[in-house]
Amino acid sequence: MEEKKLISIGAESVVYLYKDTVVKERLKKLYRIKQIDESIRKRRAKLEFSLMKRAFESGIRVPAPIKISDDGYKIYMGYLGEDRFKDNFSLKHMAELGEEVAKMHKLGIVHGDLTTANLMLKDNKLYLIDFGLGNYSNKDEDKATDIFLLRNALNTRHPKESEAAFKIFLKSYRLVYGKQFKGIETHLKDIESRRRYNESD
Amino acid sequence: MLVLGIESTAHTFGVGITDGKEIVANEKDTYKPKQGGIIPREAADHHYKFAPNIIKSALDKASVKLKDIDIFAFSQGPGIYSPLKVSFQISNFLSQKYKKKLIGVNHCIAHLEIARKETGFEDPVMLYVSGGNTQIITFAEGHYRVFGETQDIGVGNLLDKFGRVMGISFPAGPEIEKYASKGKRYIPLPYSIKGMDVSLSGIETFISNIKDKHSVEDLSFSLQETVFSMLIEASERALAYTEKESFVITGGVAANKRLNEMGRIMAESRGVKFKSIPMEYAGDNGAMIAYTGYLMKNEPEKDYLPKPVFRTDSVKINYR
Q1: What share of chain A is helix, strand, coil (3-state, %, to 5)?
Q2: Which CATH class for the A91-194 domain?
Q3: Where would you tag: which of A3, A97, B9, B129 has the fewest CB atoms within 10 A of its CB?
Q4: CB of B144 within 8 Å of any CB in chain A?
Q5: Which residues in chain A have their CB less than 8 angstroms from residue B312's CB?
Q6: Is A113 among the catalytic positions?
Q7: Could you tell me the domains of chain B?
Q8: What is the pLDDT of residues A55-98, one digit of tens each?
Q9: Strands B3-7, B12-18: parallel, antiparallel or unpaired by DSSP?
């Protein structure tokens, strides 16, 4: 029997390498009742696989999707190594990130959990991973939420460089996304002001 | 050194006294609206009315006099302006009268500091759930940072709005908990989590549309299970992301046994320590303001004003 090599234990799933395939298995959460737990795990696995497939086929840098297991809780995908962007954070990848996210958004996909922990480095290129909270959406608001989450993650995880990083990201995003960025920008400001106790009000 | 802290951001007027090691007094009285939600003016009237007695009983408990107090701390915000200004006016007056230092304390940070003190956890992730606040907070690089929060209404507000729809009196949380324990059937409700943020207002709308088809027990059960699962899931993401080793739940909604049970199960499954906080210190209270004021004792003297809008992460933490 081949060994499973553990890659990561995330908040909701365990990711391991089996032969040359990455398996992401959504774990049972004992704190939630069975009805909620099972439906969420299956729904998310199915959706995540579908989003990855759509992105991959359009040339966006994501792991290569392979299949969903019969029980519905596991998805199989290609291996990208273990170099996480959050551990090797650098401003030089921010323009590239802006480009990938803009391409993904133009395709009608939102990631839902855009943090530096969900970005991998392979051959000096950034890959988007973990579409577990992603969705199909063409709403400017959802795209703005993605951008907002990234900014929040930069602020909390890389506070010293966050401002510069976000600037580079947004410049490149805007360039690739094109004219329609205006709508997203409006929603970005809107989300800011809706957040409770925002002091810029 | 003795610090007297006054809390008045919402329903509760509380006075606490600490020497920095022990909480020597923690007295309070809570305004209860006759029906519906909080009426700011009435809350403020309540606080003005009860202030003298609460302050006196706190001083008596601690066996001290006002002239023995070295620092007057008050809840500077966030909160509802009318009740909020009560703690400011009283503390400001006392600090001038006795020529002692005045310190304004962020209400959310005070919840976190008293949680750290009471649990003994050095650096926890905290889920703070009350009427108006739903935040997941932890310390990073000189600030308490909000990793996740509600994108619309606080969880306590959601429970109270559900209560109003179902004819349950304010505050609805304890009644909902009783009904939920008798609920058997799960009715699927919108489960909306974005990163570490949650969205709660969709559930309210959804329930309003289906309420006539189900029992209050089943609806209460489904509401609790759905909302608490979302909050615990967001907390778990914050724990995984920050790699912190302890977890606490605080705020008024922390009184809910099912929420605590879910928090404990999640923490244990991750090998993370979990403790709940005694209700005396989980709901709004003066002790947390006094204790945080004590921690901030070396802050330079300055002029304060109440801040209804006062973000947790805007405060530079100089004592950690």
Answers
A1: 45, 20, 35
A2: mainly alpha
A3: A3
A4: no
A5: 197
A6: yes
A7: 3-111+281-314 (3.30.420.40), 123-279 (3.30.420.40)
A8: 999 999 999 999 999 999 999 999 999 899 999 999 999 999 99
A9: antiparallel
